[in-house]
What we know:
The protein is α/β, with parallel strands linked by helices. The protein has helices spanning about 5, 20-35, 55-75, 75-80, 90-105, 130-145, 160-165, 195-210, 225-245, 250-265, 270-275, 280-290, 300-310, 345-360, 370, 380-390, 395-415, 420-430, and strands at about 10-15, 45-50, 105-110, 120-125, 150, 170-175, 185-190, 215, 325-330, 330-340, 345. It contains 18 helices and eleven strands. The chain is globular and about 70 Å long. It starts with a helix and ends in an 18-residue tail after the last helix.
Amino acid sequence: MNYDKKLSNVSILGAAGKMGSGILLLTAVEMADLSYKKENNNITFILNAIDVSDKVLSGLLEYVRVQARKIAEKKINFLRELYFNNQNLVYNNEMIDDYIQRVLSIIRPSTLIESTYNSNIIFEAVNENPDLKIKLINQIEVNCNITPWYFTNTSSVPISYLNEKCNLNGRIIGFHFYNPPAIQKLVELINGTDTVSDLNSFALEYAKKLRKTIVHSNDIAGFIGNGHFMRDTLLGIKLLNELKTDFGFPETVYIVNKVSQDFMIRPMGIFQLIDYVGIDVCKYIMEVMNPYFEDEDIHSDLLDALFERGVKGGQNSDGSQKNGFMKYYKGKIIEIYDYNSNEYMNYETISKKMDPIIGKLPNDYISWKEIIKIKDRDDLLAMYFENLKLEKTLGANVAKKFLKETRTIGLKLVEQNVAKSEKDVNDVMLTGFFHSYGPINDFLPWGEI
Protein backbone atom coordinates (compact mmCIF):
# COMPACT_ATOMS: atom_id res chain seq x y z
CA MET A 1 0.00 0.00 0.00
CA ASN A 2 1.36 3.41 -1.03
CA TYR A 3 -0.29 5.97 1.27
CA ASP A 4 0.29 8.99 -1.00
CA LYS A 5 -1.00 7.31 -4.17
CA LYS A 6 -4.00 5.89 -2.36
CA LEU A 7 -4.92 9.37 -1.18
CA SER A 8 -4.45 10.95 -4.61
CA ASN A 9 -8.08 10.56 -5.69
CA VAL A 10 -10.73 10.83 -2.98
CA SER A 11 -14.45 11.56 -2.91
CA ILE A 12 -16.58 12.79 -0.02
CA LEU A 13 -20.33 12.15 -0.06
CA GLY A 14 -22.26 14.78 1.88
CA ALA A 15 -19.29 17.14 1.63
CA ALA A 16 -21.22 20.31 2.50
CA GLY A 17 -22.77 18.94 5.70
CA LYS A 18 -21.48 19.81 9.15
CA MET A 19 -19.45 16.59 9.29
CA GLY A 20 -18.57 16.32 5.60
CA SER A 21 -17.23 19.87 5.42
CA GLY A 22 -14.78 19.23 8.26
CA ILE A 23 -13.68 15.93 6.75
CA LEU A 24 -13.20 17.69 3.40
CA LEU A 25 -11.09 20.45 4.96
CA LEU A 26 -8.81 18.03 6.81
CA THR A 27 -8.38 15.79 3.77
CA ALA A 28 -7.75 18.70 1.40
CA VAL A 29 -5.01 20.03 3.68
CA GLU A 30 -3.41 16.59 3.99
CA MET A 31 -3.51 16.12 0.22
CA ALA A 32 -2.06 19.60 -0.33
CA ASP A 33 0.84 18.79 2.00
CA LEU A 34 1.49 15.55 0.12
CA SER A 35 1.45 17.37 -3.22
CA TYR A 36 4.55 19.36 -2.23
CA LYS A 37 6.71 16.25 -1.89
CA LYS A 38 9.19 15.84 -4.76
CA GLU A 39 8.33 12.19 -5.24
CA ASN A 40 4.70 13.21 -5.85
CA ASN A 41 5.40 15.65 -8.69
CA ASN A 42 3.74 13.31 -11.17
CA ILE A 43 0.61 12.81 -9.07
CA THR A 44 -2.48 14.96 -9.56
CA PHE A 45 -4.35 15.14 -6.27
CA ILE A 46 -8.14 15.25 -6.68
CA LEU A 47 -10.73 15.61 -3.94
CA ASN A 48 -14.32 15.36 -5.18
CA ALA A 49 -16.78 17.23 -2.97
CA ILE A 50 -20.20 15.68 -3.65
CA ASP A 51 -23.44 17.17 -2.38
CA VAL A 52 -27.00 17.86 -3.49
CA SER A 53 -26.81 21.46 -4.78
CA ASP A 54 -24.40 24.01 -6.25
CA LYS A 55 -25.52 26.51 -3.60
CA VAL A 56 -24.30 24.47 -0.63
CA LEU A 57 -21.10 23.60 -2.47
CA SER A 58 -20.40 27.29 -3.09
CA GLY A 59 -20.71 27.94 0.62
CA LEU A 60 -18.45 24.96 1.26
CA LEU A 61 -15.59 26.45 -0.76
CA GLU A 62 -15.80 29.70 1.19
CA TYR A 63 -15.67 27.71 4.43
CA VAL A 64 -12.55 25.88 3.24
CA ARG A 65 -10.94 29.17 2.17
CA VAL A 66 -11.45 30.75 5.60
CA GLN A 67 -10.37 27.68 7.56
CA ALA A 68 -7.36 26.98 5.34
CA ARG A 69 -6.09 30.49 6.08
CA LYS A 70 -6.28 29.81 9.82
CA ILE A 71 -4.44 26.52 9.33
CA ALA A 72 -1.78 28.16 7.15
CA GLU A 73 -1.19 30.92 9.68
CA LYS A 74 -0.60 28.34 12.40
CA LYS A 75 1.91 26.40 10.27
CA ILE A 76 3.84 29.39 8.95
CA ASN A 77 7.20 27.83 9.92
CA PHE A 78 6.33 24.79 7.79
CA LEU A 79 5.49 27.10 4.89
CA ARG A 80 8.73 29.04 5.24
CA GLU A 81 10.67 25.80 4.86
CA LEU A 82 8.46 24.78 1.98
CA TYR A 83 9.02 27.99 0.05
CA PHE A 84 12.62 28.57 1.12
CA ASN A 85 14.01 28.40 -2.42
CA ASN A 86 11.08 30.15 -4.08
CA GLN A 87 12.17 33.72 -4.83
CA ASN A 88 8.65 34.67 -5.94
CA LEU A 89 7.18 34.01 -2.49
CA VAL A 90 9.09 35.94 0.14
CA TYR A 91 6.57 37.37 2.56
CA ASN A 92 4.36 35.40 4.92
CA ASN A 93 1.11 36.59 3.36
CA GLU A 94 2.34 35.50 -0.09
CA MET A 95 3.16 32.02 1.18
CA ILE A 96 -0.19 31.75 2.98
CA ASP A 97 -2.15 32.85 -0.10
CA ASP A 98 -0.30 30.36 -2.30
CA TYR A 99 -0.93 27.55 0.15
CA ILE A 100 -4.65 28.35 0.33
CA GLN A 101 -4.83 28.28 -3.44
CA ARG A 102 -3.10 24.88 -3.46
CA VAL A 103 -5.70 23.51 -1.02
CA LEU A 104 -8.62 24.91 -3.03
CA SER A 105 -7.22 23.72 -6.36
CA ILE A 106 -7.42 20.12 -5.17
CA ILE A 107 -11.18 20.31 -4.50
CA ARG A 108 -13.63 19.47 -7.31
CA PRO A 109 -17.20 20.41 -6.23
CA SER A 110 -19.96 18.40 -7.94
CA THR A 111 -23.59 17.42 -7.58
CA LEU A 112 -22.97 14.29 -9.66
CA ILE A 113 -22.18 10.99 -7.99
CA GLU A 114 -20.48 9.97 -11.24
CA SER A 115 -17.51 12.05 -10.07
CA THR A 116 -16.70 9.32 -7.55
CA TYR A 117 -16.23 6.55 -10.09
CA ASN A 118 -12.43 6.93 -10.31
CA SER A 119 -11.74 7.44 -6.62
CA ASN A 120 -9.47 5.21 -4.58
CA ILE A 121 -11.15 6.23 -1.33
CA ILE A 122 -14.69 7.36 -0.69
CA PHE A 123 -15.75 9.03 2.55
CA GLU A 124 -19.44 8.61 3.27
CA ALA A 125 -20.78 11.43 5.47
CA VAL A 126 -24.47 11.58 4.51
CA ASN A 127 -27.45 11.47 6.86
CA GLU A 128 -27.64 8.69 9.45
CA ASN A 129 -29.96 6.70 7.21
CA PRO A 130 -28.81 3.13 6.45
CA ASP A 131 -30.93 2.89 3.29
CA LEU A 132 -29.43 6.07 1.84
CA LYS A 133 -25.88 4.93 2.61
CA ILE A 134 -26.50 1.56 0.98
CA LYS A 135 -28.14 3.13 -2.08
CA LEU A 136 -25.20 5.48 -2.71
CA ILE A 137 -22.50 2.87 -2.13
CA ASN A 138 -24.26 0.35 -4.36
CA GLN A 139 -24.57 2.90 -7.16
CA ILE A 140 -20.84 3.58 -6.97
CA GLU A 141 -20.02 -0.13 -6.83
CA VAL A 142 -22.01 -0.87 -9.97
CA ASN A 143 -20.37 1.93 -11.96
CA CYS A 144 -16.89 2.54 -10.51
CA ASN A 145 -13.84 1.97 -12.69
CA ILE A 146 -11.65 0.72 -9.84
CA THR A 147 -12.15 -1.06 -6.51
CA PRO A 148 -12.40 1.68 -3.88
CA TRP A 149 -12.13 1.65 -0.12
CA TYR A 150 -15.00 3.16 1.86
CA PHE A 151 -14.67 5.21 5.03
CA THR A 152 -18.08 5.67 6.65
CA ASN A 153 -18.62 8.39 9.23
CA THR A 154 -21.66 6.59 10.60
CA SER A 155 -22.11 6.97 14.32
CA SER A 156 -24.50 4.06 14.74
CA VAL A 157 -24.90 1.70 11.73
CA PRO A 158 -22.87 -1.53 12.10
CA ILE A 159 -20.03 -1.71 9.57
CA SER A 160 -20.62 -5.40 8.88
CA TYR A 161 -24.22 -4.61 7.94
CA LEU A 162 -23.13 -2.07 5.31
CA ASN A 163 -20.41 -4.45 4.12
CA GLU A 164 -22.92 -7.26 3.65
CA LYS A 165 -25.65 -5.17 2.02
CA CYS A 166 -23.19 -3.65 -0.46
CA ASN A 167 -21.12 -6.82 -1.09
CA LEU A 168 -17.88 -4.97 -0.34
CA ASN A 169 -15.82 -7.97 0.81
CA GLY A 170 -14.30 -6.01 3.68
CA ARG A 171 -13.55 -2.78 1.77
CA ILE A 172 -15.27 -0.59 4.35
CA ILE A 173 -14.28 0.74 7.75
CA GLY A 174 -15.99 2.91 10.35
CA PHE A 175 -14.11 6.17 10.79
CA HIS A 176 -16.36 8.18 13.08
CA PHE A 177 -15.20 11.78 13.41
CA TYR A 178 -16.66 13.87 16.22
CA ASN A 179 -18.26 17.23 15.58
CA PRO A 180 -16.66 19.48 14.49
CA PRO A 181 -14.10 17.23 12.76
CA ALA A 182 -11.57 20.03 12.22
CA ILE A 183 -11.34 20.63 15.98
CA GLN A 184 -12.33 17.42 17.73
CA LYS A 185 -9.40 15.08 18.37
CA LEU A 186 -11.36 11.87 18.73
CA VAL A 187 -12.05 9.31 16.02
CA GLU A 188 -13.82 6.04 16.76
CA LEU A 189 -12.32 3.37 14.50
CA ILE A 190 -14.61 0.42 13.81
CA ASN A 191 -13.58 -2.65 11.87
CA GLY A 192 -16.24 -4.94 10.47
CA THR A 193 -15.83 -8.69 10.71
CA ASP A 194 -14.12 -8.78 7.29
CA THR A 195 -12.41 -5.37 7.06
CA VAL A 196 -9.20 -5.86 5.06
CA SER A 197 -5.98 -5.33 6.97
CA ASP A 198 -4.49 -2.85 4.47
CA LEU A 199 -7.55 -0.63 4.86
CA ASN A 200 -7.17 -0.69 8.63
CA SER A 201 -3.45 0.16 8.33
CA PHE A 202 -4.23 3.05 5.98
CA ALA A 203 -6.92 4.36 8.35
CA LEU A 204 -4.44 4.39 11.23
CA GLU A 205 -1.86 6.23 9.11
CA TYR A 206 -4.45 8.77 7.97
CA ALA A 207 -5.56 9.36 11.57
CA LYS A 208 -1.94 9.84 12.63
CA LYS A 209 -1.35 12.41 9.88
CA LEU A 210 -4.47 14.28 11.01
CA ARG A 211 -3.24 14.10 14.62
CA LYS A 212 -6.39 12.35 15.76
CA THR A 213 -6.80 10.24 18.87
CA ILE A 214 -8.07 6.79 17.94
CA VAL A 215 -10.34 4.73 20.18
CA HIS A 216 -11.27 1.32 18.81
CA SER A 217 -14.91 0.34 19.13
CA ASN A 218 -16.33 -3.08 18.41
CA ASP A 219 -18.86 -3.28 15.59
CA ILE A 220 -22.06 -3.01 17.60
CA ALA A 221 -24.77 -0.46 16.73
CA GLY A 222 -24.15 2.96 18.27
CA PHE A 223 -20.53 2.10 19.06
CA ILE A 224 -19.13 3.66 22.25
CA GLY A 225 -19.99 7.33 21.83
CA ASN A 226 -23.63 7.10 20.84
CA GLY A 227 -24.00 3.89 22.79
CA HIS A 228 -23.45 6.02 25.87
CA PHE A 229 -24.98 9.29 24.71
CA MET A 230 -28.27 7.79 23.50
CA ARG A 231 -28.74 6.04 26.83
CA ASP A 232 -27.80 9.26 28.64
CA THR A 233 -30.47 10.96 26.54
CA LEU A 234 -33.06 8.40 27.63
CA LEU A 235 -31.89 8.81 31.22
CA GLY A 236 -32.40 12.57 31.05
CA ILE A 237 -35.89 12.06 29.59
CA LYS A 238 -36.66 9.47 32.29
CA LEU A 239 -35.78 11.99 35.01
CA LEU A 240 -37.86 14.60 33.19
CA ASN A 241 -40.88 12.29 33.23
CA GLU A 242 -40.40 11.51 36.94
CA LEU A 243 -40.25 15.16 38.01
CA LYS A 244 -42.53 17.01 35.59
CA THR A 245 -45.75 16.25 37.50
CA ASP A 246 -44.33 18.15 40.48
CA PHE A 247 -42.83 21.10 38.64
CA GLY A 248 -44.17 21.29 35.07
CA PHE A 249 -42.47 20.49 31.77
CA PRO A 250 -40.26 23.58 31.15
CA GLU A 251 -39.32 23.79 34.83
CA THR A 252 -38.21 20.17 34.85
CA VAL A 253 -36.24 20.59 31.63
CA TYR A 254 -34.46 23.41 33.46
CA ILE A 255 -33.80 21.25 36.53
CA VAL A 256 -32.38 18.25 34.68
CA ASN A 257 -30.37 20.40 32.27
CA LYS A 258 -28.86 22.51 35.07
CA VAL A 259 -28.06 19.50 37.23
CA SER A 260 -26.44 17.56 34.37
CA GLN A 261 -24.29 20.59 33.53
CA ASP A 262 -23.43 22.36 36.78
CA PHE A 263 -23.79 19.70 39.47
CA MET A 264 -22.17 17.06 37.22
CA ILE A 265 -19.48 19.46 35.89
CA ARG A 266 -20.17 18.91 32.19
CA PRO A 267 -19.78 21.37 29.29
CA MET A 268 -23.52 21.22 28.46
CA GLY A 269 -26.64 20.00 30.16
CA ILE A 270 -28.22 16.91 28.65
CA PHE A 271 -31.06 18.76 26.89
CA GLN A 272 -28.74 21.41 25.49
CA LEU A 273 -26.55 18.62 24.13
CA ILE A 274 -29.57 16.91 22.55
CA ASP A 275 -30.46 20.23 20.90
CA TYR A 276 -26.88 20.65 19.67
CA VAL A 277 -26.77 17.21 18.08
CA GLY A 278 -30.38 17.48 16.90
CA ILE A 279 -33.57 15.91 18.24
CA ASP A 280 -34.10 14.49 14.75
CA VAL A 281 -30.60 13.02 14.66
CA CYS A 282 -31.02 11.41 18.09
CA LYS A 283 -34.33 9.93 16.95
CA TYR A 284 -32.73 8.44 13.81
CA ILE A 285 -29.79 7.01 15.75
CA MET A 286 -32.13 5.34 18.23
CA GLU A 287 -34.10 3.83 15.35
CA VAL A 288 -30.87 2.30 14.04
CA MET A 289 -29.75 1.02 17.44
CA ASN A 290 -33.01 -0.32 18.87
CA PRO A 291 -33.32 -3.57 16.85
CA TYR A 292 -29.86 -4.69 17.99
CA PHE A 293 -30.62 -4.70 21.74
CA GLU A 294 -33.41 -7.12 22.61
CA ASP A 295 -33.20 -6.44 26.36
CA GLU A 296 -33.56 -2.65 25.97
CA ASP A 297 -36.01 -0.18 24.49
CA ILE A 298 -33.78 2.46 22.91
CA HIS A 299 -36.63 4.71 21.89
CA SER A 300 -38.30 7.89 23.12
CA ASP A 301 -41.95 8.78 22.58
CA LEU A 302 -41.08 12.35 23.56
CA LEU A 303 -38.48 12.74 20.81
CA ASP A 304 -40.96 11.29 18.31
CA ALA A 305 -43.62 13.78 19.41
CA LEU A 306 -41.26 16.76 19.29
CA PHE A 307 -40.13 15.72 15.81
CA GLU A 308 -43.74 15.55 14.63
CA ARG A 309 -44.28 19.07 15.99
CA GLY A 310 -41.27 20.34 14.04
CA VAL A 311 -39.12 20.80 17.15
CA LYS A 312 -35.89 19.32 15.82
CA GLY A 313 -32.87 21.20 17.15
CA GLY A 314 -29.57 21.02 15.26
CA GLN A 315 -27.81 23.93 13.57
CA ASN A 316 -28.62 26.37 10.80
CA SER A 317 -26.25 26.70 7.85
CA ASP A 318 -24.55 29.69 9.54
CA GLY A 319 -23.82 27.60 12.64
CA SER A 320 -26.51 29.14 14.84
CA GLN A 321 -28.59 26.84 17.00
CA LYS A 322 -32.12 25.85 15.95
CA ASN A 323 -34.93 25.66 18.48
CA GLY A 324 -35.23 22.40 20.38
CA PHE A 325 -35.91 21.77 24.06
CA MET A 326 -34.67 25.32 24.38
CA LYS A 327 -34.52 28.46 22.24
CA TYR A 328 -31.19 30.20 21.72
CA TYR A 329 -29.91 33.65 20.83
CA LYS A 330 -26.23 34.01 19.93
CA GLY A 331 -25.56 30.67 21.62
CA LYS A 332 -27.29 31.65 24.87
CA ILE A 333 -30.42 29.91 26.16
CA ILE A 334 -33.28 32.42 26.29
CA GLU A 335 -36.42 30.25 26.48
CA ILE A 336 -37.53 26.69 27.32
CA TYR A 337 -40.15 24.70 25.43
CA ASP A 338 -43.43 23.91 27.18
CA TYR A 339 -44.81 20.67 25.76
CA ASN A 340 -48.34 21.34 27.02
CA SER A 341 -48.79 24.80 25.50
CA ASN A 342 -46.48 24.22 22.51
CA GLU A 343 -44.85 27.57 23.31
CA TYR A 344 -41.50 28.71 24.69
CA MET A 345 -41.25 30.19 28.20
CA ASN A 346 -38.76 32.80 29.42
CA TYR A 347 -35.57 31.19 30.70
CA GLU A 348 -34.71 33.84 33.31
CA THR A 349 -38.18 33.63 34.85
CA ILE A 350 -37.88 29.85 35.19
CA SER A 351 -34.34 30.18 36.55
CA LYS A 352 -35.38 32.58 39.33
CA LYS A 353 -38.25 30.31 40.26
CA MET A 354 -36.36 26.99 40.22
CA ASP A 355 -32.85 27.79 41.49
CA PRO A 356 -33.95 28.04 45.16
CA ILE A 357 -35.80 24.73 44.77
CA ILE A 358 -32.78 23.02 43.18
CA GLY A 359 -30.49 24.25 45.96
CA LYS A 360 -26.95 25.52 46.06
CA LEU A 361 -23.98 23.81 44.48
CA PRO A 362 -21.89 21.71 46.91
CA ASN A 363 -18.72 23.10 48.47
CA ASP A 364 -15.48 22.81 46.46
CA TYR A 365 -17.45 23.18 43.22
CA ILE A 366 -15.29 24.14 40.25
CA SER A 367 -16.95 24.99 36.96
CA TRP A 368 -16.29 22.86 33.90
CA LYS A 369 -14.48 25.76 32.19
CA GLU A 370 -12.02 25.97 35.07
CA ILE A 371 -11.47 22.30 35.89
CA ILE A 372 -10.95 21.29 32.26
CA LYS A 373 -7.79 23.43 32.28
CA ILE A 374 -6.32 21.36 35.12
CA LYS A 375 -4.54 18.21 33.94
CA ASP A 376 -4.33 16.40 37.29
CA ARG A 377 -7.85 17.06 38.53
CA ASP A 378 -8.84 13.82 40.28
CA ASP A 379 -8.16 15.11 43.82
CA LEU A 380 -10.26 18.22 43.20
CA LEU A 381 -13.07 16.11 41.76
CA ALA A 382 -12.88 13.70 44.70
CA MET A 383 -13.31 16.57 47.18
CA TYR A 384 -16.25 17.95 45.23
CA PHE A 385 -18.01 14.60 44.99
CA GLU A 386 -17.45 13.94 48.69
CA ASN A 387 -19.39 17.13 49.41
CA LEU A 388 -22.02 16.22 46.79
CA LYS A 389 -22.55 12.91 48.59
CA LEU A 390 -23.44 14.76 51.84
CA GLU A 391 -25.87 17.22 50.26
CA LYS A 392 -29.62 16.46 50.41
CA THR A 393 -30.91 19.17 48.06
CA LEU A 394 -33.03 18.36 45.03
CA GLY A 395 -30.12 19.23 42.74
CA ALA A 396 -27.68 16.97 44.60
CA ASN A 397 -30.14 14.06 44.74
CA VAL A 398 -30.91 14.25 41.01
CA ALA A 399 -27.18 14.51 40.24
CA LYS A 400 -26.32 11.44 42.33
CA LYS A 401 -29.05 9.42 40.63
CA PHE A 402 -27.90 10.54 37.16
CA LEU A 403 -24.25 9.82 37.98
CA LYS A 404 -24.99 6.33 39.27
CA GLU A 405 -27.04 5.39 36.21
CA THR A 406 -24.62 6.92 33.71
CA ARG A 407 -21.86 4.86 35.33
CA THR A 408 -24.00 1.74 34.88
CA ILE A 409 -24.44 2.67 31.21
CA GLY A 410 -20.66 2.81 30.78
CA LEU A 411 -20.12 -0.52 32.51
CA LYS A 412 -22.80 -2.14 30.34
CA LEU A 413 -21.00 -1.03 27.18
CA VAL A 414 -18.03 -3.12 28.32
CA GLU A 415 -20.30 -6.00 29.35
CA GLN A 416 -22.00 -5.91 25.91
CA ASN A 417 -18.54 -5.95 24.27
CA VAL A 418 -19.17 -2.61 22.57
CA ALA A 419 -16.09 -1.20 24.28
CA LYS A 420 -12.99 -3.29 24.87
CA SER A 421 -12.30 -1.71 28.26
CA GLU A 422 -13.59 0.76 30.83
CA LYS A 423 -10.75 3.07 29.80
CA ASP A 424 -12.06 3.18 26.22
CA VAL A 425 -15.49 4.27 27.46
CA ASN A 426 -13.94 7.00 29.59
CA ASP A 427 -11.60 8.11 26.80
CA VAL A 428 -14.50 8.57 24.37
CA MET A 429 -16.49 10.65 26.85
CA LEU A 430 -13.44 12.68 27.89
CA THR A 431 -12.15 13.32 24.37
CA GLY A 432 -15.26 13.21 22.22
CA PHE A 433 -17.73 14.85 24.60
CA PHE A 434 -15.21 17.01 26.54
CA HIS A 435 -16.30 15.63 29.92
CA SER A 436 -14.05 16.49 32.83
CA TYR A 437 -14.07 12.88 34.11
CA GLY A 438 -15.10 9.50 32.76
CA PRO A 439 -18.50 8.01 33.68
CA ILE A 440 -16.86 4.88 35.11
CA ASN A 441 -15.20 6.16 38.27
CA ASP A 442 -15.04 5.66 42.04
CA PHE A 443 -15.73 9.21 43.17
CA LEU A 444 -18.91 8.15 45.02
CA PRO A 445 -19.80 5.05 47.06
CA TRP A 446 -22.12 3.78 44.36
CA GLY A 447 -23.52 0.92 46.42
CA GLU A 448 -24.91 3.39 48.98
CA ILE A 449 -26.59 5.69 46.45
